[in-house]
Amino acid sequence: MYRVLICRPNHRLGNTILLTPLITELERLYKGAEIDVLTEGPIAEEVFSTFFCVKNVYCLPKRGFKHPISFAGMLLRIRKTEYDLIVDPCLGSGFSRVLTKFLRGRYKLGFSDDALRSGLTHPVPTAVARQHMAQRPINLLRWAREHYAAESEPVADYPSLDIRLTEEERAHGRAVIEQLLPPSRQAASQPTIGVFANATGAKRYPATWWNEFTAAFESMSPQSRILELIPMHGHSMLGEAYPGYYSSDIRRMGAVMAGMDLMITADCGVMHLAVASKVPTVGMFCVTDASVYAPYGSGSCSLITHGLSAREAAEQVIRSFPSLLGRAGAAASTSASTSPDLDWNEAGLGSLGLSH
User: Fold this and answer.
1) Regarding the domain delimited by 167-353, which CATH topology (the fold level of the hierarchy) does it fall under?
2) Where in the chain do CATH 3.40.50.2000 domains reside?
3) Which segments does the entry list as coiled coil (predicted)?
4) pTM score > 0.85 for this model?
5) Are 137 and 114 in contact (CB under 8 A)?
């Protein structure tokens, strides 16, 4: 396999970053291969800009049917290449499957329980997909190699999310943090905690919740230095109570987060960006399924906040990182750990809804 195409026409930041483990797995399995990515919108160009194996990132226009000429022109241009392998990593995406069928590939791999009508040369049962969105394509590849090529390997670990920040990018991120922190808070022993307080729809916690959370967090870990990561709309979600960093550039945002000791965020694309920037990340879930989207790797964990007050959530975060955030949290969280009212959804991700 030397020419590989990943067909994932989606414009969301999180879904794009969730493809990075698939690329890592393809690199491991097909050393020397060149990978193209078919996506939607410009985000993927930034995400994959430092991936040596990625040659072309084809970005279909968002809402492409409103731009039929550019949309069709790009697809016809991609169709000129006959790939050795086209991977459709989606589970249940009709649009992704239509494009996979249209494009030229010697082998076409994806999930389907209807082999005859799937349009795939190598369909894989949907039951193989399992839960986590980033790990489904890994299961897809490994099952196909075992059942179609009789190549089985004792590989248990999953590749982690990684946007492959360069050392130069990381150095710039650390420099920005030093500039943002006041001189009185620049002691090396004081942990830097990043907070991203935005999300879409019901995943967004209200401002009053965040105010209670940060107040409790600071009272239990007064040595911590909080920095806010400002959302794309350019407005603070924490009332400008803390130094803030804003960038519309995905990699610059990741570089600054990489300089943090811990990131705290709701379930959103920036949560995945933080994990892919290799900073320990607490992802807080109130409505979505953590078993599908939970951060993993780099000491990251998920926190199910259903049934928790903001203060109780802060207590759990501090108790989960005692060496970083101090001993105060362990004593303060005793009441939370024994409360019968807490609804912990472990979802196979670790005790108390937390998984490192």
Assistant:
1) Rossmann fold (3.40.50)
2) 3-148, 167-353
3) none
4) yes
5) no
